[in-house]
Amino acid sequence: MSDAAQPTAAEVRAAAEAVKTALDRHLAAVERRSGEDDPAVYEAFNELAAAAETYDELLYDRYDEVTPFEIPGAEDELPPYLGPEEPHALSVLIRRDYAVVEPQRLLAQARRIEAADEDAADTDVDAGTVHGALGILFGEFEPDEIASRHKEFGLDEGDSTLWVTAADEPAEAGEWLRAPFDQVDPQRVVCRFDVSAVFDDEPDDDEPDDELDDESDDEPDDDLDEPDTELDGELDEEDELEPLDADR
Known about the structure:
Structural class: alpha+beta
């Protein structure tokens, strides 16, 4: 970055003050929050994240220094909920991604479905193509069943998400069928559930067990032999003791 484009010291100072103000506002919102999903807390959180990011960028551009903190995932979060407090209608939007990893398995399943369904023979769907097989598969099974049995159908799971959005009134029949996902308002999302491999950062639970197994395999014979020797010695010493009197 050229010297002309660098922020001034005053701009960096102003950004630092903005972070302090955002911190105070966030704490005040937390102290006054009305519930777990209070939109005021969410808004204050986003303001704090934006102020911290701006300060970090200006600090680096001006002084080649960075801040020691980071607010992860602030840009990926949904905006605060602004929908009705008592929704009278809901829309559930689901997206599940799959990869066709075993086309022959998919085709075989489609042929089985077609052979068992007499009405399928009257359709124009070709069970011998991947496109046709997918049409038969998703026409026969519910999405949840496909999700639970995807490996049987030659599919591999990708990311998935489910959004529950609030509406004031139910939509008219056929109103949104041509473009079902075009009018989704993120500020009306009541809740969402995401599944992705990027969340699988936890270490493998089997690793500690493997380490224990390795340790137990290092010296198995020595550990077994030593107790037997000591036990034999204890028995020999007991043999030399005089028997107790019956009156004791």
